[in-house]
Write a structure and sequence with these properties.
Chain lengths: 221, 183
């Protein structure tokens, strides 16, 4: 300690001081000065003196992001929803489309009949049927024959011949229509049976020769 | 701040990065905006709600932001409008303007830190006695030191009117302090 020179010591403040005491002192001085004759609010320190809970900014940010996020999620949700709507619309369209085509086959016969009814008003071709389908023609021929028999038995003697075909045609068409409707409502298997029964066994044998073997049908048999 | 503002605008302009943009926007302006709102409506919970709504509205209506003004000016505008709406609601709940003033002054007393100086508490109470426009101009100029030109953009008022309002507001505040301060 002989060589101790205080000049070599570090200059240090070792006394305890309360935090921000200098700021408080300034405030007090300004306060005293301000409330003189020339009080000026500009000389006051700008302070936020309101209480604030800790971490509220994080809380607020989380809420904002939560509010903002669902907007995007909702957008996505809406897209998904729209897809379902489109899917539902497509399904409904398909359903009605299929129903329409299935029914069209059923409706085809009545349309066919009404088309044939059209000549009803045409006196020049009252009972001419030129449909390619042989079965209705057969039925119609049978119906025509029956009707002719009825008419010959029930018609008055002075009846004009010109009226006869037209009456026959009209009545025939009505009957045919009735039969057609009945035919439409029948079970397809019964229809097939009816068609098959109209062929002779020889004709069926001929048809059988011309038809190619269905291997898938064999597989399932 | 300038670079950060353009960065935020860039992020907010693209839908993919908008969330990041709003996050940066909050980080940059939440404190300033919060204190602006808080000085106007005093209550913390209400101020937090208003701040939250301000950012949500900024996010949702960002397409309306014209980039010829500064982003924080636009945010201040939203925050101010939201705060005024809240103040009007509060006033409607009170019978008279005096009742509303009294209510806000009581709210100041309830909301200050326990160690707050009396002169500072009185100053906040004095601000609550100011008419709406004077209150806005005074707080934005006195606390936030915003230039009159920017306050003019935020409040849609001429610089001359703002200066006049500030002058009257300051006088009123000083009169209130002189009348109520006990040394």
């Amino acid at each position: 300690m002989k060589n101790l020179d205080i000049e070599n010591l570090e200059r240090k403040n070792i006394f305890k001081t309360p935090e921000s005491f200098l700021e408080e002192m300034q405030g007090k001085v300004l306060q005293k000065v301000s409330f003189g004759n020339e009080f000026d609010v500009e000389n006051l320190e700008r302070k936020n003196i309101f209480k604030t809970p800790e971490g509220f900014f994080e809380n607020m940010q989380a809420k904002v992001l939560q509010e903002v996020q669902p907007v995007e999620a909702r957008e996505e949700g809406r897209i998904v929803k729209m897809n379902w709507v489109y899917a539902a619309a497509a399904a409904i369209t398909m359903f009605f489309g299929i129903t329409f085509f299935v029914n069209q086959d059923k409706v085809a016969d009545p349309v066919y009949v009404t088309e044939n009814v059209a000549p009803e008003n045409n006196e020049t071709q009252p009972a001419t049927y030129s449909e390619p389908d042989s079965k209705p023609q057969n039925e119609e021929m049978v119906a025509l024959k029956t009707l002719e028999e009825d008419l010959t038995s029930a018609a008055p003697a002075n009846q004009k011949i010109s009226i006869k075909p037209m009456t026959i045609a009209a009545t025939n068409v009505e009957r045919t229509t009735a039969k057609k409707k009945e035919y439409v409502q029948q079970n397809p298997e019964i229809q097939v049976d009816q068609v098959l029964s109209s062929f002779t066994s020889a004709e069926l044998a001929d048809l059988g020769k011309n038809v190619e073997q269905d291997i898938y049908l064999d597989l399932y048999n | 701040m300038k670079i950060k503002e353009s960065e935020i605008i860039g992020l907010m302009s693209v839908e993919r990065t908008r969330n990041k943009g709003v996050q940066l926007m909050m980080d940059a302006y939440q404190s300033r905006l919060y204190w602006h709102i808080r000085r106007l409506i005093v209550d913390h919970d209400l101020a937090q709600d208003v701040l939250q709504d301000t950012f949500i509205k900024a996010y949702q209506n960002f397409h309306q932001f014209k980039q010829d003004s500064q982003l924080y000016t636009w945010l201040y505008r939203i925050a101010t409008n939201e705060s005024l709406q809240q103040l009007n609601k509060l006033k409607k709940m009170q019978k008279t303007d005096e009742d509303a003033e009294y209510y806000l002054q009581n709210l100041v007393a309830e909301n200050v830190e326990s160690d707050a100086e009396e002169i500072q508490i009185l100053l906040q109470k004095a601000i609550q006695t100011l008419p709406e426009k004077q209150k806005l101009v005074f707080t934005m100029r006195y606390y936030e030191d915003l230039p009159y030109e920017e306050i003019s953009q935020i409040l849609d008022m001429s610089v001359g009117t703002l200066k006049t309002n500030y002058h009257y507001a300051k006088q009123k505040v000083e009169d209130f302090l002189k009348a109520n301060y006990e040394e």
